[in-house]
Design goal:
single chain, about 500 residues, seven-stranded mixed sheet, four-stranded antiparallel sheet, 19 strands
């Protein structure tokens, strides 16, 4: 009997011996566990998703669909995601299994070290990392135009051997199913989402904006706090600096302008695709006279954390259970702890920070991942389970969509539409009814609305207003339209001109 078949029939008593699991990271999505066998050999990593997230109808189903769509996707900058499995135990739990990057360090960990040591990341290294991320995301988008990462952040960027590795690239479509507001996505999951005319859609533009947020954090050389979402970056953007041979100085205007466009804060010009953003970054670097060159000593100083410590990203996850949430908006409960909590003596700042803490006990215990580990030890076994797991989870997704009720009042009832124009005072019609002149801010029912601006040649377009969200539109009319719309003074005719007919000269 070959090894693959032998692993498939391992009983639970044999699985009990396989226990060296270690929770190495925790954030708003859940806990990342490093799974080892009884000899201490690393097998894989698994992201145990919070049950409050997977309990949202279609979340797990969408995750399965994205995993299936990217089944054959491979790129050296992405950490392969293998499969989605149901974990054994009394409480239903779902985990996302991926390869382990030996020696990889999370960018969020690097930011914490820079913040505590008061040592900024060099501008050359920042630009190098951003270009690497944009290049990798461009490859992902070109493989499938309908696919975006959707959850890019320092917590999902690894640096290993001086190279960028991106994790969890299948989360985007599932995260979109939560239908949070942009502020809530940031506070609870550290997912940056700009408001756009189409509502909160996890498309290519979202990935570009999330890369822009990573750039802001790197230039600030610290993790961003709860209040520093895309809409709250005004003061920080003005204070960003760049490193030079003569010390820090204010960030060059071309680089700041690039950030504004990537973050959708420049309403007249935004980047739609990552390759457009990458090309614009090259031009901004040339104009600012800086190069994307990693500091070799800086990259070499990045080392993994000591074994036996856990990295926790403190996000503003409400601790109120869903059942007792305020009527205005349901609150996701905090995930159940897998390891002991940190010492009470450790002070926790209000803003998002990352801290290191050691497990309370090193005593071996039953691993909830052991049955999964047995099957994952063999590539052949992985393929055997994959078809069954995907089929079962897809069927389960359909069942959830039919029988799992949505959390009460997950959405508000209206959204906000802001319309501005150049010139101002342009009549605005919504669904055929006059609503005033620009600039104007309206509360509208969620859904599609017909917007018409009547100035010269009328501008007519549809805007989808998302519940609880703010949608902005800026329309600039061409100069010719502005002149034609302006009243023209009448030209007086004198008596001679009015009475003298045109004469024709003959040779």
């Amino acid at each position: 009997m070959n090894s693959a078949i032998a692993l498939l029939i391992m009983n639970r008593s044999a699985a009990k011996a396989m226990r060296s699991d270690e929770v190495i990271f925790r954030d708003g999505f859940g806990e990342r566990v490093l799974v080892r066998d009884a000899r201490g050999r690393t097998l894989h990593e698994t992201l145990v998703l919070r049950s409050e997230l997977t309990g949202v109808p279609s979340f797990e189903f969408s995750l399965n669909q994205r995993l299936t769509a990217l089944d054959t996707f491979e790129h050296s900058a992405f950490v392969p995601v293998r499969q989605l499995v149901q974990l054994p135990g009394g409480v239903p739990r779902v985990s996302l299994i991926a390869d382990h990057v030996e020696g990889g360090v999370r960018l969020s960990d690097v930011l914490v070290r820079c913040n505590t040591s008061n040592h900024p990341v060099s501008t050359g290294t920042v630009l190098f990392l951003i270009k690497e991320i944009l290049d990798a995301i461009s490859f992902l988008h070109r493989q499938n135009p309908d696919v975006s990462h959707g959850a890019l952040s320092p917590e999902r960027i690894l640096i290993a051997d001086g190279k960028v590795r991106i994790t969890d690239y299948v989360l985007g479509s599932a995260v979109e199913q939560l239908r949070f507001t942009a502020d809530r996505y940031w506070r609870e999951l550290r997912v940056a989402v700009p408001s756009s005319a189409g509502g909160l859609r996890f498309d290519r533009r979202v990935d570009v904006a999330q890369v822009g947020m990573i750039a802001v954090a790197l230039l600030a050389s610290r993790p961003l706090g709860d209040a520093e979402s895309i809409g709250g970056l005004g003061e920080l953007l003005m204070c960003l600096t760049q490193t030079t041979d003569h010390g820090p100085r204010i960030l060059a205007v071309p680089l700041r302008s690039w950030l504004m466009k990537a973050l959708h804060l420049d309403r007249r010009r935004t980047f739609v695709t990552p390759w457009e953003a990458e090309q614009a970054l090259q031009e901004a670097m040339a104009e600012a006279g800086v190069r994307a060159a990693p500091n070799e000593l800086e990259m070499a100083s990045i080392r993994p954390r000591p074994s036996g410590s856990m990295l926790t990203v403190k996000t503003n996850i409400p601790k109120t259970p869903i059942s007792s949430a305020p009527a205005a908006e349901p609150i996701i409960a905090a995930p159940p702890a897998v390891v002991a909590a940190p010492s009470p003596a450790a002070a926790v700042p209000q803003h998002a920070v990352v801290e290191t803490m050691a497990p309370e006990s090193e005593q071996p215990q039953e691993s909830p991942f052991a049955p999964v580990t047995n099957l994952l030890l063999s590539a052949r076994a992985k393929k055997v389970i994959k078809f069954g797991a995907v089929s079962a989870l897809m069927a389960g997704g359909f069942m959830a969509a039919q029988f799992v009720p949505a959390p009460a009042r997950l959405f508000s009832t209206t959204g906000t539409l802001v319309v501005e124009s150049k010139p101002e005072n342009v009549p605005l019609y919504i669904d055929g009814k006059l609503q005033g002149v620009t600039p104007v801010t309206l509360k509208l029912s969620a859904g599609m609305h017909k917007v018409e601006l009547r100035h010269g040649t009328p501008r007519v377009f549809n805007v989808y207003v998302t519940k609880g969200d703010r949608v902005s539109q800026y329309i600039e009319f061409p100069a010719r339209a502005r002149r034609s719309a302006a009243p023209q003074p009448a030209t007086p005719l004198d008596d001679t001109t009015a009475s003298t007919p045109a004469t024709q000269t003959t040779p």
